[in-house]
Protein: Glucosamine-6-phosphate deaminase
Amino acid sequence: MKIIEVEDYNALAKKASEMVIKRVSQSSSLTLGLATGSTPLGVYEHLREDFINNKTSYKSVKTFNLDEYVGLEKSNPNSYYYYMYKNLFDHIDIPSNQIHIPNGMAKDLEAECQRYEEQIDQVGGIDLQLLGIGVNGHIGFNEPGTSFDSITHVVKLAESTRIANSRFFHDLSEVPTHAITMGIASIMKSKEILLLAYGLKKAQILYDLMTKTIDERLPASILKRHPRVTIIADKKAMSIIKEKAGIND
Ligand SMILES: N[C@@H]1[C@@H](O)[C@H](O)[C@@H](COP(=O)(O)O)O[C@@H]1O
Structure:
């Protein structure tokens, strides 16, 4: 895994967006894997600005989102569907039939998971997957203990994840208990992965990721087996790694 350290959140968002824009401009049929949460917000902001200023076109780009809550309507501001349209899709020229987000309202959730995984395979897999990381090391919504062989599936969210994500809801009881997520094996099929981490609250998990062995108790640790992973982290997220290595700056 290659780590790029940047000064702060804005530099992280800028760097990540430049990498995405470069791939979009270079390929006539790119498939992007997209993430939600607070971390990619600045990246999407830069992509929106770039679309206005430089007209980078997404007409032939396909996207697959990592995950979606179970039981939230698309119109619910906390659904990842709503998040993605509000922060990105409503502002660029991507055709809606090229956007893929798991349907957390599907009657048959198992069938929805299978359909989603097949769609990813049908387009030849994801070229570039954006990832955040949970404080417990989850990627997508793959909580600690998830099998490394998992494909798109329904998960019961860890209480720590529900509490962490409750900041977006009125209170904890509104946070869904389940979600659909690409599995660890689905994520590992991506040709290239860009993991973003910023802030002190990610410093411990980033240190664990870099120093601990590959283990299902730390879902992100599997990324060490992937040939093309870049981590972009700001100084705060890097602070424990550097402190333990005796690096001061
Ligand atoms: N399902 C998402 C993940 O895809 C995201 O990476 C993580 C970190 O979120 P944040 O970027 O807000 O710290 O939390 C959520 O639970």
